[in-house]
Each structure stands twice: as C-alpha cells, then as structure tokens.
Amino acid sequence: MLVLLLLWLARRMQLWLADGPLLQSRLDSGARQAMGTLVRYLVLLIGLLAIVQTACIDLTTFNVLAGAVIVPNSKFITENVVNWKYNDDTVRFRIPLGVAYGSDARQVERILLELAAADTDVLQDPPPVVRFVGFGDDGLLFELRAWSASLVDRKGRLISQLNFAIYDRFQREGIEFPFPQRDLHLKSGVLELRRAAPRAAD
Question: How many whole angstroms separate alpha carbon 33 and alpha carbon 10?
Fold first, then answer.
C-alpha cells in the first residue's frame, strides 16, 4: 500500500513541476520533462529507502547488487561522470547515398562536405564528416554525417534539403547515381523461342 502511494505521489510531483514552476522558466518542453522525471526518481528513491528501513530490511543486501553495475559506486564519488546528452540540443543525422562505379571518391567526399558547410541548419562544430562505407552490388556507398541544433525535431526536412542539394550538384558535376544492372551471358548454344500452339476450346 505504501509503495502504491509513493508511486502516485512521485507521479503527481513530476506533473506539478513540469506544468507549474518549471513552466515559468526558460526551459523547453524536453528539458522540463527531464527535470520532472529526475525529481520523480529522486522521490521514489528516498521513499523506497524510507519504506525499506521502516520494514527493518537489511540494506547491506543492496550493496551486492550495486557492485554488479557497469559503473562502480566509487566512480560517482571520486570521479566526474559526464552526461553528454543532458541540456544538449544537437542531434546527428546520417544521409546514406551511393554513386556509380568509376566515380572519383575524393571528389564525392569534397562535394558532400561543401554542401554540408553551405547548409545553415548544419553545425560546423562538431564538423560534418563523410564515410566511405563500402562497395555495393551496383555502386560505391557513402554516408554523410552531420549535426544540427535547429532541426532536431524535423529530421525529414534536413535530410530532404541535403538530398536535393546533393542531387543537383551531382548532376552538374556529372557524377552518376547507381542503378541495378544485370547482364545475361550465353556461353554457347542457341537460344530458341517457340510460340505455344493455341489450345482447342473445351
């Protein structure tokens, strides 16, 4: 019963903070939700510890479980733990593409980096990069990786405008996109086609 009450209280606290005091701040909706969730977990942790102590459960049992975590407890006390995504509004986008065999791979890399640098929605820090990811059945495979802070929630728009720019530039530069090609090889013999005789009506 106490656990259910604690869960309800923690949830109400999260909603109150997100829609109350935090709403008056300059934080965006994502940051408000993150702060509310953090407070919710904190309330749950404190409440569960209080319930466990009230029930006279030996807390040393949890030390064994804590020792199995990826990050040892001592890391949180003696070293700095960096959260790379908290309060970070940048997102990396990946734009895969292919070019026909015979294309200049370095020219493709240079053009992709120029197009990414010219796009105002692409960040230059971290800088965009181009990866030559492999050899496909029909062409060379590349991937443009770029960061954006302005189109975090509109991934399709950024990818679309970069694809338009890539297509137009490749057309001007004479770089061909791959398309499936299948060759039929006859080693010997004669390929004979016969028309089947019409069947009599039943």
Answer: 14
- The answer to the question of residue 188 being in a domain is no
Helix residue spans in 20-154 (DSSP H): 29-54, 61-67, 73-78, 105-118
Instruction: Please name which of 122, 98, 117, 118 lies closest in space to residue 170, comparing C-alpha atoms.
Output: 98
Q: Name 97's bridge partners.
A: 142
Phi, psi of 21 (to 5 degrees): -60, -40
Same domain, 32 and 70: yes
Q: Are 178 and 99 in contact (CB under 8 A)?
A: yes
pTM of the model: 0.50
Q: 122-165 pLDDT, tens per residue?
A: 999 889 999 999 999 889 999 999 998 887 777 788 899 999 99
